[in-house]
Write a structure and sequence with these properties.
The protein has about 350 residues and is α+β, with helices and mostly antiparallel strands. Helix content is about 65%, strand content about 10%. It has a six-stranded antiparallel beta sheet with strand order 1-6-2-3-4-5. α2 packs antiparallel against α4.
Length: about 350
């Protein structure tokens, strides 16, 4: 947070009115405030950029976290499937082992010396004996093949289980890291957001102070109305000012110093408001009348008013504030009837 130690309105308003020295002090204060506001604008732009970058990073971390959670879920399903396969295979292995044990015992007996002699003596002929021996060899080869296959299946299942467990452990570790990174990025986003909010508050405070200084400057620089403005005259005039309750420096404020304007409202509301106060209106320009324009056509969003100084055959000449040179600046111009824009009409004097 920035500290602003400027004493904006140290001098009472009545003391600064019409004081060139106080106006100079206020102008210097305004310049300092404007510089600080520009600095805050740059700081806020950087803070906002940091906030957006942090939000993007947080979005990426959350996407990775969701992906890792899905991976863990898939690995869990794979592990459950593998465990079921292991149980099924183990049952088959147990069955094959039982069969293998039976065949091994039978083969062992067949190879015993007495059994071999019995085979020779029991054989009806030499060919039958040879076939019996060959059958025993095939059984032995089958026993060897089944034994090797069982050992291979057991090794494959054990390796698959170990690999799957390792992958799940790695995914769980990555998930823990992503959860920690997600928490860190959430805190970072909150910090950047708080920083932007603080700068916004500082900037609003500066703008309010600048507005206060502008008001003080306007009061300090404002000349006495009677010294700058003359009373209206001519068939459209309504006498001199009868007090001015409009904001300093605007077109409404200028006209209210030339004419008696008892009503309130923005410029585009004057034509209706004057009627409610009994002031006559019309579409013909007259010296001393108030010309009223509606919004658009170069007359802003709230319309415009001007004081009619003279009338010509093809138009009229007005004096006004804020049309040609900007805020708090007076000008005079000729308005042709053919290009008068959104002109509502003229307010005459009582």
């Amino acid at each position: 947070m920035l500290a602003f130690g400027l004493a904006l309105l140290a001098v009472p308003m009545a003391a600064v009115t019409g004081s060139a020295d106080q106006a100079g002090v206020l102008l210097a204060q305004r310049q300092q405030l404007q510089q600080q506001a520009r600095g805050l604008g740059a700081d806020r732009a950087q803070a906002l950029s940091d906030l957006l970058a942090a939000e993007d990073a947080l979005h990426n971390v959350r996407a990775e976290l969701d992906h890792n959670r899905q991976l863990l879920a898939d690995l869990g399903r794979q592990q459950a499937t593998l465990l079921e396969k292991i149980r099924s295979t183990q049952a088959g292995i147990d069955s094959e082992k039982a069969l293998l044990a039976t065949l091994t015992r039978s083969n062992y007996k067949a190879k015993a010396a007495d059994a071999g002699l019995a085979l020779v003596f029991d054989s009806r002929n030499f060919g039958q004996m040879v076939n019996s021996l060959m059958n025993q060899n095939r059984v032995q080869q089958r026993l060897t093949d089944v034994s090797n296959q069982l050992r291979a299946e057991e090794a494959t299942l054990r390796q698959a289980g170990a690999d799957l467990a390792q992958r799940r452990a790695q995914a769980a570790q990555v998930g823990t890291q992503l959860e920690q990174e997600n928490a860190r990025m959430l805190a970072l986003v909150a910090d950047h957001d708080a920083r932007v909010a603080a700068l916004d508050a500082d900037q609003r405070g500066l703008l309010l102070k600048i507005a206060s200084v502008n008001q003080a400057i306007a009061i300090a620089q404002a000349p006495p109305p009677a010294a700058q403005f003359s009373a209206g005259s001519g068939s459209g005039g309504g006498g001199g000012s009868c007090g001015n309750h409009f904001d300093y420096g605007y077109c409404t404020w200028y006209v209210a110093n030339r004419r008696c304007i008892p009503w309130f409202g923005n410029a585009d509301e004057w034509y209706t408001n004057a009627r409610s106060y009994g002031f006559p209106e019309g579409k013909k320009a007259k010296v001393g009348a108030v010309a009223v324009w509606g919004p658009g056509g170069g007359y802003g969003s709230v319309g415009h008013v001007a004081y009619v100084e003279s009338v010509q055959s093809d138009g009229f000449t007005v004096s006004e504030y804020n049309y040609t040179y900007g805020w708090n600046r007076k000008d005079s111009r000729f308005v042709a009837y053919s290009g008068a824009g959104p002109l509502y009409g003229f307010i005459y004097g009582k």
